[in-house]
Amino acid sequence: MTRQRRKKVHDGDTHLKRRWRTKRRTKDLDEINEDIKSENCEKLLNQEVDYDKPGSAQHYCVHCARYFINDQALTEHFRTKVHKRRLKALETEPYTIQESERAAGFGSWVEAKKRKIETQQPLEDSESSDKRMRVESN
Ligand SMILES: [Zn+2]
Predict the structure, then answer these.
(1) Ligand 1: centre distance to CA 63 (Å)
(2) Rounded to the nearest whole angstrom, what is the distance from the C-alpha of residue 82 to the centroid of ligand 1?
(3) Is residue 67 classed as helix, strand or coil in its secondary structure?
(4) Do residues 94 and 117 touch, judged by C-beta distance below 8 A?
(5) For 50-79, how does the pLDDT look when each residue is reduced to its tens digit (9 = 90+)?
(6) How far apart are CA 105 and CA 102, in angstroms?
(7) CA 85 to CA 82: how far, in whole Å?
(8) Ranges of each domain in the chain
(9) What residue spans carry the Basic and acidic residues bias annotation (predicted)?
(10) Where are the beta strands (DSSP E) in 27-135?
């Protein structure tokens, strides 16, 4: 055989396919933008025990829309590249129609604001806010 059969030439193209994969598909950035608003954030961090979710849905990263099995896995995730990259991606404010109008020449140019995105507080904090809420309801 003169010509060697080339197999799997697109083997390293995972980054191109990942966008369309649905196996580990999480929320899109615009959905997460909704989630990090304080009232939604609180709800997501104090989820009810759901045995279908990893770790019974008690360890959740709002910014990455991911569940973790325990507290250690969650805090370790906070230190990873994926999480930091996600925080960086969430820093710029979401695109708006107003911004597109400014770009088209209506109004004056305003640079997209940078938000300070911080990793959610460890669980002790959410528990104490939970207690506060209980006190208020009594
Ligand atoms: Zn994360």
Answers:
(1) 5
(2) 7
(3) strand
(4) no
(5) 898 888 888 888 888 889 998 899 989 999
(6) 5
(7) 5
(8) 26-137
(9) 128-138
(10) 60-61, 66-67
